[in-house]
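B., you asked whether I could sanity-check this one before it goes into the benchmark set. Here's the sequence:
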Amino acid sequence: MPVDISDGPRADLIFSFHAPCLPALFDDDSTHGMHDRMKKVDFIVTSQQQTWLIEVKDPESRRIPAARTAAERDNFLRKHRSGTLYTRELAPKLKDTLIYLTLAHQAPANEIRYIVFIGLTRMDARSLATARNRLRRLCYHPGPFQRDWASKFDVIVLNMPAWNRIMAPHSVRRP
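And here's what the prediction gave me:
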């Protein structure tokens, strides 16, 4: 039986995860009491083999007022093209989340995947790969003495069609 998770009662996206994955909302102050100045990923999904730190960017959300939809999408694309989406939003969310988990003695010991979901259905595979490569360069640091870290790490950037294809049987949908 899948476990559905969203970012609240008025959510525009519903993620369904199948066992043995355990999803949890993380970008919620009642979950962890994390200070507002720290940036947080939206969800953390754990299994025996992997921990997924999931950030959702949804410029096509139906919660955005119709009069603002085009402006929100254009703003998102501008940040994507300029790189500020990665340097000021996505990379800091990963780093602050990992700092929090480490200091709270909850750091993942298994493989870590930073998964960014971008709610643009028209984002093609080339744009997703470009986004992944930009984010990988910002988020990956060589381990001690330039060797790999004990935990494996990867960055994945997906939109809805790519998520439902690559992450199956886990899925995302709009209600």
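One thing to flag: The mean pLDDT is 89. Otherwise nothing jumped out at me.
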